[in-house]
Amino acid sequence: MMGSCVAPVLIGLILLQIHEISECHKIEVTPDSGTVIFFSKKPAEGLDCSVCKDEGPSQTCNSNLELTEARPTIVTFNCSQPGNIFTVQINQKIECSTSGCSIIAVHPHSTRFLEFKRTFNWDLKVQSGKMFQLDFPAPGMRQIKLSESCPDKHTYTIITYQRAGPLSVGTFCRNGTISRIQVLYRGRVSLEVPKDTELNPSDFKVSQGSDTTALVVVDVKLPRGLSSFDFFTPNYDTGFYSEDKIKWNFAVEPMHNFTVLFPQYTPPECQKNKVLVDYTLGDKTSFTKAPTEIQPANKQGDFSLTLTNCEAKRAANVPGLSLNVNVEVTRGGTPVLCTADLRNEEGLSLQIENKNPESFCEMSLNSVVQEKIVVPAGTKADLSFLDCPVQDLQLTATKTIDCPSVSSRDVGTIPLSLAIPTLDPSLHVPLQQFTWLLRVLDQGTVDLTSPAGNLLQSLPVKDCNEKVSLLISETDGSNIGYFCSLAEGTIQKIQIKGNVSITVTPKTIKDLSQEKGPFLKVATSPEITENVIYTVSPLILGTMNLATPNWPKGMNPSSSVTWIVNVPQEHKAELQFIDVSKLTCESGHTEVTIGPLDSQGQTQSWREDQSFINTVVQQQQSFYLNMSNCEPKSDHFAVLSKITLQKETKKFLGIILAVVGVLLLLLIIALIVVCVIRKRKNKPTANRSSIYMPRGKPFLPGNATFPKSRADNESHVYASIDDPTMYGHLLDKNQPAEVDNGSWSNGHQVDAYRPFTGPADSIPPATDSSAEYPLDGRGGDREAFQSFLNPPNTFNLPRPRSPLVSQGSIGFEDRRMVHNELHTFKSVGDINPIRLSTDESKLKLEMESDSDSGPEPEYEEAM
Ligand SMILES: *[C@@H]1O[C@H](CO)[C@@H](O)[C@H](O)[C@H]1NC(C)=O
Ligand SMILES: *[C@@H]1O[C@H](CO)[C@@H](O)[C@H](O)[C@H]1NC(C)=O
Ligand SMILES: *[C@@H]1O[C@H](CO)[C@@H](O)[C@H](O)[C@H]1NC(C)=O
Ligand SMILES: *[C@@H]1O[C@H](CO)[C@@H](O)[C@H](O)[C@H]1NC(C)=O
Ligand SMILES: *[C@@H]1O[C@H](CO)[C@@H](O)[C@H](O)[C@H]1NC(C)=O
User: Fold this and answer.
1) How far apart are CA 300 and CA 606, in angstroms?
2) pLDDT above 90: residue 368
3) Nearest CA owner, ligand 4 atom 4
4) How far apart are CA 486 and CA 209, in angstroms?
5) Choosing a second label site near 613 at 20 to 30 A (CA), which of 141, 312, 522, 756?
6) Rounded alpha-carbon distances, angstroms, from residue 705 to 282, 688, 769
7) 529 lines ligand 5 (CB under 6 A)
8) Does the beta carbon of 476 lie inside 6 Å of ligand 4?
9) 3-state secondary structure 799-831
10) Of 546, 613, 651, 604, residue with least CA distance to 799
């Protein structure tokens, strides 16, 4: 059992060993089973050299040697270079039946007998009445004349054994159009490789083919494009005599026309019948021609050509039939010609690509066939399109504009309008993309504005819905975003440092040249520090979204973006971070900074390693929002934020009403006082002539209190509330306290919950603007930051941030007044009175139990 397993392995591995013995050449040969190895002397060569089998007394020497047994055999040559004198044949027999062949994939061994000329012979035999079939892997085989040779020196020959003797079907090289050859009944396939040539064979397949219809059937796949191929009849040099058929089946690519020519024809001497050429075309029409007639030309589709010999006279000086069949393939269609003249459109270049690899499109530029046509700027080109369906072609145009230098005097002059120029009307290809490359030279900035109205960034939350999409990118290839001009746009200006590319592609239309623009206006300005600056003015009664460049993908490493947000008078902006990606930095930090534009007043900033709260920042005046990225280690930095503009409700009316209210109150008090004085003249009176309200904390001289009303009940008035207090039950209680500290840029530790102990008045405490910065790091921790990405509703709702008392009540109006007063203290103090709605009384209970009422330095400062 063991032996039978090991033996084939050995046969496979140790096939050849060469030992040099002085003057002699000794090799050990183990033939594969079923293989015969035959050494034979070349004719008239080295008569004094012999090949010997075995060693010692049993050695036999001869001029040739046949090895049939699959066992190691010592073969000795008594000359040093037997390869010059001997050749090796390696013969295998392959028998096929309906159930298959003894060998299916024919693969000659590549390392054997390199110093000999080798001939591999496969003797094939199938059932009678059948043909043996050889399938050649792509790229197939090419037939050559005997006088020709193959470039890779691998020559294949096919022979069929006829009653009259062997007949050469043909000689072939690798790499051609023949995919299959079928030959009648019995034959031999040979592969000849000269000595010292590495074997690199095609592993063809053998099978039992169809019933006999001809002596030889050759299947040919004609390739695309212009080409011409030759095929030869058996025994082409001497001709063949038997009354047999040779059939070629040609597969012709669509959109191609074929033409058959017979460049060489030697007729036999027919004793019976005639030589005929039968054609069957793809549409099943068939016709017969004599070889001397004109053969089919400029036809389309697959076809077969069957050559039938007559019964020819066999005699020494009478040639047999030999025919060279030439098939020429050309493109069937007529090309469409046009011209692209870009000499008058500065910086404009065109590219045309065929997007359908299956199509038969053939494009040429100035009569040279090209895969992709590029017409460089400033040139004129003749284009030709053959069988190119317009929908397969993609025309893209690029216009390079050198923006005026920032230092040159034409800066700030009429901005350029980006509109698509009219292309040559003979160019019928629809324009699929137009790109402007705006180049700035001396480190300038490109300013983009809308030609009408403002720009809008197209985001999933608010899409542009335009016929075209407009992509603005930095020229390092990173996108900033998609934009459109829209009446309700909010972006007044986009400033981009360095070179910019702007790409227009159709969205709902087919051809961009229907939509010429102008799409944008371009100007240049001096260099900015950020990579991108947006100047935005949010819509009154609407929201706008701010997305970092390349959102939702990350910003470029170490890049920055700033939004300059113009808040109109009597409005406040509510800024909410609705989607912040989480990342870790390799070096540096991401930073989000908010600050007033007038550079007076407080800025707030957060880094990626600090908490980022999911609430709302309110700004009563124009401000900037600045975001800069670090060198990320993992993940990326992308922020989507939202600005909502709200009217500072009825401010003037409020003031008037407040004044009237106070006057009325004073009047009533005065009346009461007068009445009381009149009624009780002798009673002593408390001196309560003034009410001072420093920064919203009511202060009444003396010990007296005002009567309380429900709305003013101090049980829902808080001097300040910080987020952990309010949302502490939602947050991770185990979070170390340090995480919560110092996230404000000014590092203030403020806003600890402090139950309101002072006397209540009829004026609800004002909301200091700084108290409305809910991004305050103390309120969050890592968990809060994570939940920011997908904020739960409970996280958004409880925070009061808009006028808390029903509008129009005296209390509300007064709040505004107090607020105005507070505003002047804003940069100093951080007292943050917030009045909770009754809904939050539940929360209040929890907060009261957590009464960590620290000192109020900021309050004292404010005093
Ligand atoms: C090799 O052997 C043959 C027969 O044994 C002999 O005739 C021939 O001379 C030898 N050649 C050399 C080179 O020894
Ligand atoms: C096959 O032939 C074609 C043209 O005859 C040639 O361009 C190509 O390089 C050849 N390929 C190989 C693998 O020899
Ligand atoms: C290709 O063949 C078709 C059909 O036979 C014919 O109409 C067309 O003119 C031919 N094309 C050329 C270039 O001859
Ligand atoms: C813009 O592109 C031009 C040409 O490619 C280059 O010379 C120039 O340095 C680029 N400008 C910037 C700011 O990168
Ligand atoms: C925004 O941040 C960048 C990078 O830190 C800085 O260069 C730039 O001056 C900042 N802009 C504003 C308006 O703060």
Assistant:
1) 72
2) yes
3) 439
4) 71
5) 756
6) 108, 11, 28
7) yes
8) no
9) CCCCCCCCCCCHHHHHHHHHHHHHHCCCCCCCC
10) 613
CB atoms within 10 A of CB 254: 11
The CATH 2.60.120.290 portion of the chain extends over 404-417+432-525, 529-649
Q: Does domain 404-417+432-525 sit in CATH 2.60.120.290? A: yes
The most distant pair of C-alpha atoms in the chain lies apart, rounded to whole Å, by: 164
Distance CA 202, CA 181 (A): 14
Q: Sorting pLDDT into bands at 50, 70 and 90, what band is 614? A: low
Any idea which residue has 């012999």 for tokens?
50
* Cα radius of gyration rounded to whole Å, the chain: 47
Cα 533 to middle of ligand 2, angstroms: 56
Residue labelled with tokens 């590029």? 374
Tell me 105's DSSP state.
B
CB of 257 within 6 A of ligand 3: the answer is yes
Contact assessment for residue 183 and residue 213, using Cβ atoms and an 8 Å cutoff = no
Q: Before 357, cis peptide (omega within 30)?
A: no
Residue 826 near residue 768 (C-beta atoms within 8 A): yes
Whether residue 555 contacts residue 629, with contact meaning beta carbons closer than 8 Å, is answered with yes
**For residue range 203-221, what is the model confidence (pLDDT) as tens digits?**
899 998 888 889 999 999 9
Evaluate: CB of 300 within 6 angstroms of ligand 3: yes
Give, for ligand 4, the residue of 499, 532, 556 to mutate: max count of ligand atoms closer than 8 Å to Cβ.
499
Distance CA 437, CA 501 (A): 4
Handedness of CA 795, 799, 803, 806 (dihedral sign): positive
The structure tokens listed for 810 are 């005296």
Global pTM reads: 0.58
Cβ neighbours of residue 319 under 8 Å, at least 6 residues apart?
238, 239, 266, 268
Bridge-based pairing state of the strands 117-125 and 86-97: parallel
Instruction: List, for residues 282-291, the tens digit of each pLDDT value.
Output: 888 999 999 9
Q: Which residue has the tokens 């009754």?
A: 838
Report the alpha-carbon distance of residue 123 to residue 101 in Å, rounded: 12
Q: Find all residues with CB under 8 Å of 81, minimum gap 6, and list them.
A: 25, 115
For domain 529-649, give the CATH number. 2.60.120.290
d(CA 844, CA 806): 21
Instruction: Quote the CA–CA distance of 490 and 471 in Å, as a whole number.
Output: 17
Atom of ligand 4 nearest to the CA of 439: 1
Confidence of residue 654 (pLDDT cuts 50, 70, 90): low
Cα→Cα distances 504→82, 117, 360, 490, 521, Å: 74, 65, 29, 20, 14
**Distance separating alpha carbons of residues 145 and 324, to the nearest angstrom:** 10
Q: Retrieve residue 445's tokens.
A: 């900035």
